[in-house]
Amino acid sequence: MMERKLPPGQEWVDGLIPYDIGPVPPLRLEDFQLRIDGEVENPLQLTWEELLELPQAEVKADFHCVTRWSVPDLRWEGVLARTIIELCRPKEEVRWVLAYGREGYSTNVPYGYFAQEDTILAHKLNGKPLPPENGWPLRLVVPSLYAWKSAKYLARLEFTREKRQGYWEERGYHDVGDPWKEERRWDSRA
Ligand SMILES: Nc1nc2c(c(=O)[nH]1)N[C@H]1C(S)=C(S)[C@@H](COP(=O)(O)O)O[C@H]1N2
Ligand SMILES: [Mo]
Description:
The chain is mainly beta. The protein is about 10% helix and about 30% strand.
């Protein structure tokens, strides 16, 4: 069996367990818009077709939820964060990316983690379109951070220099959330 590394305090499970802060408004793909704005040289507003015309990539990664389950080897397909960075050109002072879901979710991601080579805006999971409960039609996936940073139903990415907290960060969860450092809550103890 292939050896897989599990971050401290985690257990392997077979599949994703959906977590949602509330109901998600319906969407037709022809109405899909992804806003990319904030401190960038080139703000973007992408339609679904425009998103699919960008270079597509695949990332295989484990997924670690702060509630202590981890799913091995998920295969995500979509547009790499690095492709988005090349297109929108964040200003030098940028330190954070706020990711927003269309139902009102938000989360702050440190720019250095957003810019990792395995961060992806995914529209497929294991070869199929994202299931509704896993963020259809598009979600952010930041494999290097706990799963609450991987905003589902992605509607907007805002690049900022100042830190502004998202939904769970305002409720005590960590601003960074690195599973290898067990950055669960702000005090790293809970
Ligand atoms: N838009 C949105 N994204 C979200 C959430 C949410 O409530 N809304 N929950 C987060 C949390 S707490 C987790 S653990 C993961 C769960 O991903 P899954 O539902 O695909 O298992 O999504 C994250 N992304
Ligand atoms: Mo979560």
